[in-house]
Structure formats: structure tokens, C-alpha cells
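Annex B.
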Amino acid sequence: MSSDTIFTKIINKEISADIIYEDELTLAFKDINPQAPFHCLIIPKKPIATINDIQNEDKALIGHLYVVAAQLAKENGFSDEGYRVVMNCNENGGQTVYHIHLHMLAGKAMGWPPYTEKSKI
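Histidine triad nucleotide-binding protein: predicted C-alpha cells.
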């Protein structure tokens, strides 16, 4: 799989996005098709295609994605109420861009399980 995805283009500022956080390791931006009142994507700047491609040396980077999520939750006022953070893997897992990313959703109560009637097994 090519590491040149739409996320790479956003990281390189070739495509605009509503960026809400950036540091040397990560970028977070609002999802263009929000599924909750607050829905952003938190991505590593290092291109990693899927969860299956995460290596031992990526442990700190993956942990950093969650640190950023907690910081965004606090800054946006929903850390106490709660939020959902999910990472999809491959086609059947719902992954559409092959550059790992956390979906962070908040601002409403999230039901469980996190699937629609259509996707039930």
C-alpha cells in the first residue's frame, strides 16, 4: 500500500483541513463527515498503514495519540462527560484511509455496541 494518502497530503499542507492540534508527532483535524457533535481524527505524522503494521518501535507514538486525545477532551470540555476513541483496521473493520488514525467522538451519549443495524453480524 502506498504511504501517499490524503492524510499525508494534509500533513504536508497540500490539502487543507480544519486542524485543531499539531505537534512534531501528530496532527488532529475535524472529520469532514462528523458522526457526533465533536468528531476529529488524530493521526501520527509517521505513515503506518494499519494497526497490523504497528511495530515495537511505534509503542510511544501510539501512546502519544491517546495522550493527545485526552488533552483535546479536556480542552474541549468533555473529558468528564466522556467520549469515544476508536481505530479501525482494514476493510471489514471500517478503515477507508490506510494511514492509522483515531476517531475521537464526543458531545452526545454513545451507544454500545458501536455499530448500526446494517452492520450487525
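The longest strand covers residues 38-44. Strands lie at 19-22, 26-30, 38-44, 84-86, 102-106. Further annotation is deferred to the next reporting cycle.
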